[in-house]
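Onboarding guide, step 5: your first structure request.
Type a short instruction followed by the sequence, for example:

Predict the 3D structure of this protein.
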Amino acid sequence: MKITIIGSGYVGLVSGACFAELGHDVICLDINPKVIAQLKIAKAPFFEPDLNRLIEKNILKKRLKFTTSYFTGCKNNIFFICVDTPDDGAGSPDLKNLNSVLATLKDKIKKDAVLVLKSTLPIGTNKSIAESMDKHFLSKNINIDVCSNPEFLKEGSAVNDFMHPDRIILGTPNKFSKLLLTEIYKPLKLPSNSFFYMSVESAELTKYASNTFLATKISFMNEVAQIAEKTGANIHEVRAGMGADKRIGSHFLYAGLGFGGSCFQKDMKALISFEKKSKIKNSIIAEALKINQNQVKLFLNKIKSNAGPNLKNKSFIIWGLSFKPNTDDIRDSIAIELIKLLSPNVKQLYLFDPKVTSDSLSCLNQYKNIQFLNTKYENFSSAHGLIICTEWDDFVSPKIQELQKLKDRIIFDGRNILDSEILKENNLSYIGIGI
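The system replies with structure tokens like these:
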């Protein structure tokens, strides 16, 4: 099928490359000429495992094209809209980019079309879009189906998530669009029970509810970790015991610095905002968000209370800047938040991340006691301690002899990824979360 993807960010670009890999003819449209110029030479503007390979392969097979032109993009009649909907600062999604796309499509679409919204939108937005499209195109005798197909791609494994999904959520208004979308995903060869057909409103809420529930599990475990520290329990043992219960499951039970990224907090705030507008008394979602926002402050206090006196004279290595491993995305990164809080309190911070570069960290320019490292063991003899903020695989089994170069031989593990017993056996102090 011939598909146009509007928006070439994480969701749009991964979706476009994967649809092309499934055999569809795909046009990725973005109004940013620099992004499109990069993509035409098979260079993604961000790091995502296996994505560049798929882009290059499908450009060569002529199944994947890139453009800034709506005239070119509107030659197709199936549109997947994947523009960002960031927090507007008041807890609701900012729909400015979406509204701009919709206004342009109203001007450019000349035949029956299907609009598939992958962007995370406030509940009721798809219905509002459908009503607006019907009103606009009624006199032109053009039919526009508006569908909701929320994405569940995890940064760092987005290509694999697309090609091997747990489920496909399809909010469709009629049988035609249901069959069309099913046919688009048919090359994935998924069992029929992997497809969930529902109203557009249910599809919208499914995305919000899924992300909010996962975030709540993380916040719950961080609260349990605080209890563990007060009682002498070990959060690793608690997690294993809980995760063995099939009703609970083992996923998202890891205590740590909390969740970051562009989805969880934004989606929680959107649901909280909707509840307030609808006069629904909320508690669980708001409290889960509050726990997460407080987690980095609790960790900062651990550093202050365990690093010894004269913190102003101390220097630290920080491992991990991205909000999660296998991505270079620093949006709402807990590591960046911690650096901003810690920098004014210490002499020097040395930063290392396998993928994040100093070029993308203009948000830290005001902090003059920061130095970026080229290798993870650089400057260990100049630092008093190590702080781990992102659980990259490369950090899991560090060389003991390198850690022993730290002046105070202290490690603050914000992700609980190191073996505390091995470290203690080698005369290294270990401070984790819930341990």
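Each response can be followed by summary notes, for example: Residues 377 and 399 are 9 Å apart (CA to CA).
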